[in-house]
Amino acid sequence: MIPFLKMHGLGNDFVVLDARRTPEVLRLREPALARALADRRTGIGCDQLILIEPAPPAASNAAANTRDGARNEADAFMRIVNADGGEVEACGNATRCVARLLLDEIGRPGVSIETVAGRLEARAKRGGLIAVDMGEPRLDWQEIPLAFACDTLHVPLARGAVSDPAACNMGNPHVTFFVPDLAALDIGAIGPGLEHDPIFPERCNIGFAQVLDEERIRFRVWERGAGITRACGTGAAAALVNANRRGLAGRIVEVELDGGTLMMAWRADGRVEMTGPASLSFRGEFDLAAFGG
């Protein structure tokens, strides 16, 4: 039997598996197994599977950035598998959940998590909140990536009532459409086509933002490989960055998602910091063989 944790960040939910203790869960990188476990009717159900793996050897990440420059080694490696079975590079809400587990396990005020997209630093804050340094946004069209050169502040993309998004990469690709009335949008109808538009060679996370004032943004997202989720940390970071680039908001904002609010700050050093909760729903076990493993 394989132990797991069901966790969520503002309703963006995860099945968290510790491959350091049960290496056989690495088989869940196989798309068919991941889809079976993520199925909400016949599996456990989640937006993403999260695998906590041993940190890479210190020599392989000696150049990684750390907050204080004193430690070269990460505390763990985090792998993210979407509900559709595809691996993705980054997930802000999952990072907070893994950070909470590592903070409790290690007993330090801060931890370092290696991902496919790079090193992420996290620390505990008051009230059980977790702050994560999401790194610097990447803004060049090749870094998103897009299929051709264009101004990433005004991407030539439209579908239905939405058009003219801004793009950035926060460890994974995002575009943000700015709309006057978020409640009027049928995101489930327009999201899939936008995710798979030919302009995105690696598909894309599609965000929809209504700027309420310079310090508040209402935000919803169609996540690549997961569909509509109640929260998206990297999407909230992209919404802040793109709103500020457009002159619509400041550099510190509250991003209001379906599942709750994230505090986002685009700091003076160019890095984006996300602060929010990380919640444990329950613990359980499953038989890997029952899912084809």
Helical percent range?
10-25%
CATH class of the largest domain: Alpha Beta
CATH topology of the largest domain: Diaminopimelate Epimerase, Chain A, domain 1
Over the alpha carbons, how many angstroms does the gyration radius reach? 18 Å
Domain count, please report it: 2
- End-to-end separation in angstroms reads 12 Å
Largest sheet: 17 strands, mixed
Percent of residues in β-strands: 35-45%
What is the number of helices?
4
Overall description:
This protein has two domains: 2-134 and 278-286, Diaminopimelate Epimerase, Chain A, domain 1; 158-269, Roll (Diaminopimelate Epimerase, Chain A, domain 1), CATH 3.10.310. The protein is α+β, with helices and mostly antiparallel strands and 293 residues long. Strand 2, helix 1 and strand 3 (48-53) form a beta-alpha-beta unit. It has a 17-stranded mixed beta sheet that branches. Strands 9-10 form a two-stranded antiparallel ribbon. Mean pLDDT is 94; it is low at 59-70. 15% of the residues lie in helices and 37% in strands.
How would you sum up this structure in a few lines?
The protein is α+β, with helices and mostly antiparallel strands and 293 residues long. Helices cover 15% and strands 37% of the residues.
